[in-house]
Amino acid sequence: MIYLKELYRALKPLKRKLILEKWLHLILLSTIIAMGLNIGLLILSKFTLISYIYLKFIGIIILSLFTGSLTLLFCLPDMRKLVNKGDSLGYKERFVTAFEILSHKGKQLNSFEKMVVEDAIEKARKANFKREYHISLPEKKLKVLAVMLIGAMIVGFAPSPVKEKLEYQMRLKEVIEEKTKEIEKVQNELKENKELTEAQVKQINKELDELKKNIKQAKNEADIVRARQKTQEELKRISKDSVQRDLKKIGESLSQHELTRELGDQLQKGNIEDIKRSLEELRQELANMDQNQLKELANAFKEAAESLESDSALRQALSDYQEAITNGNLSDLQECYQQLSEQLAQRASENEDLRKAIEKINEAMNKDNNLSQNQGQNQSQGQNQNQSQNQNQGQNQGQGQGRGQGQSQGQGQDQGKGQGQGRGRGHVPNENIYSRQAEDKEDFDAYVEGQKNQGGQFHQKEEKMIGKKGESVPYQEVFQEYKKEALNLLEDDNIPYGIKNLVKEYFTSLE
Question: What is the mean pLDDT of residues 60-65?
Fold first, then answer.
């Protein structure tokens, strides 16, 4: 056994060369397989989106090298192969003979066998296997690998027949990743929000997790928009449901009356600042109301008070404010106003942090729309300015021509330009427009008188014209009515939550 170990130790340099040769063969084979997979991957990438394809390309190569190296552990040369390789270098079967003797005889060797074994060991010790054994590489494998490398380069630089589609899918994927990161950022901020309860955070996170899932499954940008709108509608529902029950009840009651509709709408939303603002605006309007309006206003607050059953303090504040309006006592009215404002603010403070958090999430979701909204607003303002200038110029040109003097016409044009640029918001100061009752106008036949021409013939033109114009009222009155109705309509659950800010900005641009 000692002789076998000595023979193995003497042949160890040869074994290292054999292992290196085997490793190179395995690496070549695994690299050829990897290149085949990479070429298939490159071909597939010309027809479908594959993200980080070059990283995947390199990853497959690295994996092939690792696999080839790992396979070497199961292909190490044994002692028989080692002695055969040694004898092939010109040692005339010395190593094989010694190995056979040691394998069969073990420790019991006669003098002749001992001499043969010792001779083999001595030859192995003196041999320079590093120089004598030359590692051979398979030419066929090298050629195949070279061809595959060229093929991979050709396929890689070849244009895709669906290039535009793939570019769109790549942009979409980037948008999805960006939106997903934004949602995760919002969720991290929710965790750090100490003002929300664990149940509230869990409720919001449930909707945000669903949004992430839908965004990742989006096939186009429209799917992302729809997913976001759906989540905003759910968050809107959560926000509305969080408003204190009695506050919503009186809000629903006050919304049934024209004078208190805006206050009622704000009460149903539960925003303290908006409630106080609407209540203050209503108080300021009291001075301009006639007896019928004051009676209607008092009746609205009376009905709101009667709608409450359990909240006696709020019911009493509403009743006191209704009586103060009926009596017309200014000192009592101010005191009751303060009491009602405090009671409403106290009810609105319930779950206020939840509604603020939802509003903040909504702003974060729609911040990417700010640029397009501003562009749309600027375009709208520019169009209104042009329309205003053109309208004023046309009106003043007509006035100048009616005077019959070219000089007057020029003055009219200059005046028109000056007016159009003065306001620049789509209307001129203190102008009147027609009320909405003018929608049901009757038509009539209009006869436009003409003059005789040189042939002595008289021409008269008959046209079908728009009839009654309706009532002419100040611009601001009609504008505020439209604005109020538009904002009220936005409270419909079917309207996306993020549209509200856009509509507000639009009406602000027209003021």
Answer: 94
pLDDT of residue 109: 79
Round to the nearest angstrom and report the end-to-end CA distance of the chain.
Answer: 105
DSSP codes of every residue in 90-117: TTTTHHHHHHHHHHHHTT---HHHHHHH
- What confidence score (pLDDT) does residue 215 get? 93
- Number of residues that make up the chain: 511
Helix (H) or strand (E) holding 271: none
Q: What is the amino acid identity at position 350?
A: E
Residue 310: which residues within 8 A CB-CB, separation 6 or more? 246
Residue 155's closest CA among 40, 55, 64, 50? Answer: 40
The band of 17, judged by pLDDT with boundaries at 50, 70 and 90, is very high
Q: Which two tokens stand for residue 259?
A: 């004078």
- Single residue among 124, 157, 190 that ends a domain in this structure: 157
Measured CA to CA, the distance from residue 85 to residue 99 in angstroms comes to: 13
Task: Find out whether 68 and 23 touch, Cβ atoms under 8 Å.
Answer: yes
**Whether 112 and 6 share a structural domain:** yes
CA distance linking residue 143 with residue 149, whole number of Å: 10
Task: Tell me which residue of 75, 68, 43 sits closest to 57, measured CA to CA.
Answer: 43
Instruction: Report how many domains make up the chain.
Output: 2
Asked whether residue 319 is domain-assigned, the answer is yes
Q: Which domain holds residue 120?
A: 2-157
Distance CA 152, CA 41 (A): 10
The reply to whether 147 and 277 lie within a common domain is: no
pTM metric for this prediction: 0.57
Domain-ending residue, one of 309, 328, 350: 350
- Cα(416)–Cα(179) distance, rounded to whole angstroms? 49
Tokens matching residue 6: 């000595």
